[in-house]
Specification:
Elements lengths: L6 H17 L5 H16 L2 H12 L3
Amino acid sequence: MHPTLTLNGLEAVYDCLAETLDQAPPEKSELLLAKLALLLAQDLGDADRFAALAQAALQDL
């Protein structure tokens, strides 16, 4: 079972991501998100789970 965040935890993550994106030059935002995704994937340690989460992120764009 994967640990989950509370609503407050998710809001904190969203705020952190928004602040981090604001600090990056606009032309580097995609690179920042790619680097962050790779760091999180390494921390997750499960390529299949990462792929499933990537597909979930595509929903309702």
